[in-house]
Amino acid sequence: PFVTEIWQIYVLVFVLQSCSAAFTPTFQATIPDVLPDEEDYTRALSLSRLAYDLESLLSPSIAAALLTVASYGVLFQCNAIGFVASAVLVLSVTLPRPRPVDRIGGIYAKLTYGIGVYLATPRLRGLLALGFSVSAAGSMIIVNTVVYARDVLGGTDRDVATLMLASGIGSIVAALALPRLLDRLPERPIMLAGGGALAVVLALAATMPGSAVAFVLWALIGAASSVVQTPAGRLLRRSAHPEDRPALFSAQFALSHACWLLTYPLAGWLGATAGLAPTFVVMAALVIVGVAAAVILWPSVETEAPEHEHAAVEHDHLHVHDAHHPHDHAGDEGPEPHRHPHRHAPVRHAHRLVIDAHHPVWPR
Questions:
Q1: What is the pTM of this model?
Q2: Where does 121-244 have alpha helices with state H?
Q3: What integer pLDDT is reported at residue 324 of this predicted model?
Q4: In degrees rounded to 5, what are phi and psi of residue 333?
Q5: Are the CB atoms for 139 and 190 separated by under 8 Å?
Q6: Which residues pair with 338 in a beta bridge?
Q7: Where is pLDDT greater, at 104 or 192?
């Protein structure tokens, strides 16, 4: 309500999104600490997706209704109060205390630690490729739905809202169905099937169908996107130590947004210069590229506890006594976790593996 220049809006959007980039990965990384059981966590992911989709569907309608009785300034003030109330609710709950983290290396190594873990984990490289597929399909929905509803269907804002509603409904239905499906099948075939469905539906949309068929296609895009995105938290949770989850979820946030940064302008530019039908075809092709990359990067068979070797190494970092730290102490190191220079003897063993300071490379 205090903005008087357009540039101020850009600054505020930048600040708002920066705060979101800090909050969202932290929120996502906290859920597995609160709900350590896999089934509970899977259902929490489904509910989180449901809340996200409901907010996307209901917020514009609520805002439009409130604007009939209040000004924009009042709406922004009410929204600000909502954020404060959310912060108070967060402060009112008891969250698990994170374990202390002590990274090896300088500032750059610490800043890029999460991305390094992410890109070194095969299943997460596959997740990134599928995330690119979702961004290619989702950018068509977000950027070009208005164009499709008005230019192809000859409709109004109501038709735009109807198509967006279809996408949201499809996403909600898929999110509610996924927990039972994930109880029976692993994530890889489910997510790959969702990515393949995105390519097929985009190709069908290139035929420029009428309102009824378009509603179904938009719903299928929403459902397929949810099928790919909702299980992502399970993969991230499985791929890091508890203390490393915030870094890994932050990497997921950054890398997935990098995909959107590519596909958003591409969908808009192609739609404006080549037309919607060729744009649907190009985006379907990009989805196929992402799915094909996921098939290659994400092994179909993952060994839960791969056998691997450790070379001898000496380093200094915060640690507890576990299978990788069986060394003796002089007695003055203090309570665990503690740090002091220590040596690892060469060893070959097998255990559940994630990328960390002792496993910088995924074993072949």
A1: 0.87
A2: 122-147, 157-184, 187-205, 211-229, 232-238
A3: 67
A4: -80, -15
A5: no
A6: 319
A7: 192
